[in-house]
Design goal:
Elements lengths: L1 E5 L3 H12 L3 E5 L2 H10 L1 E5 L3 E5 L3 E3 L1 H13 L8 H7 L5 H15 L5 H9 L5
Parallel strand pairs: 1-2, 2-5
Antiparallel strand pairs: 3-4
Helix pairs in contact: 5-6
Protein name: 2-dehydropantoate 2-reductase
Length: about 130
């Protein structure tokens, strides 16, 4: 599975960085100095869970670099094509939802911060306290 992260700011770089840290094939869409920095320096993650991690050899490009190739891939999808996330959820397997949404709820419980919208989303996806 390949991941394309459109926008490598705080959120995109964090999500894509954690996917890359777990060995996933991630390409970031970035521009300007940020694109240059990702290509030259890689990506540095700061996490309370895993500490500081540097992701080397980050794949980063501008949208024009990948647009034609990805449109060809999308053109090949049938109407019943589903994402790997949906397949994992349907099969009751652990998915990115656990790391992205469930961890937020776990932290909110730990630090006693009410997050009703995230909690509702997490419960919808099967979160159990």
């Amino acid at each position: 599975m390949k991941y394309l992260v459109i926008g490598a700011g705080g959120t995109g770089a964090s999500i894509g960085g954690f996917l890359a840290y777990k060995g996933k094939d991630v390409t970031f869409i970035a521009r300007g100095e940020h694109l240059k920095a990702l290509r030259q320096n890689g990506l540095l993650l700061h996490s309370g869970r895993i500490g500081e991690v540097k992701i080397e050899n980050v794949k980063a490009c501008i949208a024009d670099d990948l647009l034609a190739d990805h449109l060809k891939i999308l053109d090949g999808f049938t109407p019943d094509t589903t994402a790997s996330l949906q397949k994992d959820l349907d099969a009751k397997k652990e998915s990115e939802v656990d790391q992205i949404i469930f961890d937020i709820i776990r932290m909110s419980e730990k630090y006693n911060v009410d997050m009703p919208v995230y909690r509702e989303i997490a419960l919808h996806f099967g979160y159990k306290s």
